[in-house]
Amino acid sequence: MRKFFPVEELARDSRFNQVTMKDRMADPRSALVKDEPRQKSNRLVPSRPDASAAARGLMHGIFVGEIQALEGAGRTCHDFRTAGDSARRAQDDAHGEDSFADAVPFALKLDMARQAWDEARHVEISVKLSDWMGSEIGEFAENTVLFQAACSTDPILRLAGVNRALEGLAIDVFTTMKEFGDLAGDPYLEFCEDWMLADEVTHVKMGSDWLRRVTEHDPDRRKKALEFQSVVDKLFSYGGTRSDSQESPIGLARRFRELAGFTDDEVEDIAEVSLAALEERKASVARMQATAREFAAS
Amino acid sequence: MPCTGVRPHLGGIVADPYKPRAPFAPWDRRELPGLFDVEESARRIGNYKWAEMKLFEALGGWVATVPELDVKMRLGTHCYKHAWHAELWHKRLPELREMNPERLTQPANDAMVRFIEAMTEPEAPEQTIEKLVGVYRVFIPHFIAAYTFHKNNTSQITDAPTIRSLQFILQDEFDDWRDGEMLIQSLIETPEEVDRAAAHQTRLEKLMIEAGGIAGPGSIGGAGAGGAS
Amino acid sequence: MTVTVTPQTFQFVHFDAALIQRVAESLTAALGLDRPVAIEVDETTPLARISVEIGDTVTIRAESGAFEDTRRPRHQSEDATAAALGRVLLRSRDRLLGGFGEAPADDDLSLAQVAAWETYCVGRLERIGLPVNRQRWKYNFRNRHGFSDVADLAFDRLWTSDGLTWGELDEISRAAAGS
After folding, report:
1. CB within 10 Å: which end of chain A, N or C, has fewer?
2. What is the pLDDT of residues B55-84, one digit of tens each?
3. What is the CATH T-level fold of the domain C3-97, as seen in this structure?
4. Are strands C58-63 and C50-54 parallel, antiparallel or unpaired?
5. How many CB atoms within 10 Å of residue B221?
6. Residues spanned by the domain of A214
7. Is any Cβ of chain A less than 8 angstroms from the Cβ of C49?
8. Is the ipTM of this complex over 0.85?
9. For residue A85, which residues of chain B lie inside 8 Å, CB to CB?
10. Could you tell me if A100 and A146 are in contact, meaning their C-beta atoms sit under 8 angstroms apart?
11. Subunits in contact with chain B (3 or more CB pairs closer than 8 Å)
């Protein structure tokens, strides 16, 4: 089995259809840009007329996101050599593979294995919740952007991308869904999201702790990891899907992020990056729509 | 209460707590002698830890490569269980005078390394049967055998902490073996697939024979079982 | 009855106007709707809202998400097209056939009333052979009427009914929401 698995080869059964972030951003339509706002907020709340459909869509997004998170955690168990594993080192050397694979502490890999189990449970929960909400497996396209963040060949960058950015996004999404379930009086949804949220806070905290420990004496590496995280955070803002703005369906869960080890400054940075992503997306859609209209008129 | 030699008056209505009793109750049949000394026990546990590590790494790596959703979720779940087993063995090693656990975290021999390489070779999405056969029809049954031999032959008194871990781990291994075997049976639908599974199992079993088991020759007794009694 | 679709060609999505027309013609025939239908698709938004105006012509305005294949963004789904058009055409037929005279205008319906009427429509669509996911509509109904046994019984009643009046439909919805 290769080290470092390409996102294009993620294995799925015939029900799934995968799209990339590039495909998604090439869609010139936008739910954000309107000539006149028909509703005050895009935030996912039960009072939205399309609340049920939007919640089902988001739930399916969570489902495929959990699959990718499971795959990412599993790959981290496999892709990096455990410090002190001399037999693996000899194998890697024999395959000429050790040039970029840093060894990681045994305990870090144990945490990733634990995360794999947690994510597998989250997939199970998501399947049950999707059933409850009337969705079918594969009903919505799967955006593979989450696994892309888990593809870094540097374990610390991967940790920053997966455990801090991806799992951080999960905290925001689960908080929004938990509140949705609470407001709608849906005991099943609220119950499940609450449990998953507890796991996600743990995963982000794992990422925060390991990032600090592994880069304790290497400030350059820490800086690089945090920069990478910022890039991924912007990517995960999905062109404005997640931000403090009411125009975004998903808010930023500040309190849970603090519990997970984000500093106030870090949360502010993510808020800023998310808002910038929203504005960039709006401008890009406006450009694409103008071009399409010109083309149609010509 | 300190023993002063003075027995308080009991009034003849309660059992006498001062009556001498055998230190081992009649139903406690544990024996002191065991097949392994400290050094041999540590060597085996180092081999177990290495093998459990290879197993959880393989299961984690395969998650992304299998298209079957139920298999994907099972592999993720089992990945953690084997990591936990590795952790239990990692923690046991210093208790066996091995203060540098990495020193003994080794494959039993080169053949075991070749076995792992062959077991983890299948990667394509069409090879789920081979992946599962390697783990659930070869590797895990050999874990069960080695662990059972260790549990039944080590000193029931001096090595009780190892036995306790073995009991937890064996429960997991049996549960996972059953999960995996049922997945395999549900995936094999044609005579050709039976042949595929059998061919892969045969290839891996031959390598495992060469390795002598999870802890090398003597993993389940016989020549090389080693240690002091 | 004639069905017209605009636009005839799409810039933002890979939709087929002829397919929309064919699906709408088949539905109007199955439902016995006796006036022309004009369908206007807003392809600039992926939202899935759909509205209807009943005059001499039944005019349907649909956002592109209403006809979209959610598995393949920007591509059309025949099932989604049929389900979306079927719902508004049935609602139009309810208003035209009588018994729904006192129903508020679409824009004035409460979210609970919309959910109840949708349930009544989709249940009937299932019986004429359209593929629908009953649980999806039950979830929608529960979100508007509560997650309770009473709400579920009301859903079952609406889903299996034919020939309800607005008064009966509204009463079922009110009783469920107030339980």
Report:
1. C
2. 999 999 999 999 999 999 999 999 999 999
3. Zincin-like (3.30.2010)
4. antiparallel
5. 13
6. 42-297
7. yes
8. yes
9. 50, 53, 102, 105
10. no
11. A
